[in-house]
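agent> call fold_tool(seq_1)
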Amino acid sequence: MKVILLDSIDKVGKIGSEIIVKSGYARNFLFPKSKAVLSTKKNLAIFKKQQHILKSNLDSKRLKAEFRAKAINDLGSITITVKSSIHGKLFGSIGSRDIAKLITESVGFEVHKSQIRLPNRDALKSIGEHNVCIHVYNEIYANLTVHILNSVLFQDKSKKS
């Protein structure tokens, strides 16, 4: 199915591109989210008339995303205290939902869990520093350091009476 993209989409195309996609992808994703229209002569003419409006909307989204990325980068790091073993392994794990919630509380705008890119695409399971990437918009990313600390100090077993 031939469509005209109304928004830039990673690994698919840029705004205004006339591309061929599978019909299910177009019907189930692109059309409902208003990211593309069917490529016809009429739609092509309408798109050419409204192209400057769409590009200005895209520019405003990009500026907003750059502002958000700067705010997250300025945050620098967040600290999480959790229970862990003597060896530094967490009782549980820190996932993208936990990190997104802390970032949202810190910066004042919503960061969704799907925007968080964890190292090795797995939850954080040990004490220490972990570098996390946040996908803000198409090619705009922010970096953040997550410090995980132990909340319980374990006593040495030899001191028990």
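agent> call fold_tool(seq_2)
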Amino acid sequence: MNTVVLVQVEPQWAVPWTAPQDYRFDPRDPARGLQLGSDGRFLAGFADGSARLLRGDLRPELLLRLFRKSDGQRIDWKTIQ
């Protein structure tokens, strides 16, 4: 499964885990707000229970594919980690 359901974000974008709300990404700039580590990657949790460190410089259209469910397109994991 390729759908991201959890990301680490910068503090100003954070939502308390107990709050009944979610981080809302901007489809025009899906990387805005992501917390990048010193290696330029961000932590993403996926719907299948896996977690991956992904490159912070992903093309916006690829990041949108990861954020949206059931698009049916394959992901080349070697190019985004």
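agent> summarizing second result for user.
The chain has one domain: 4-79. The radius of gyration is 12 Å.
agent> awaiting next instruction.
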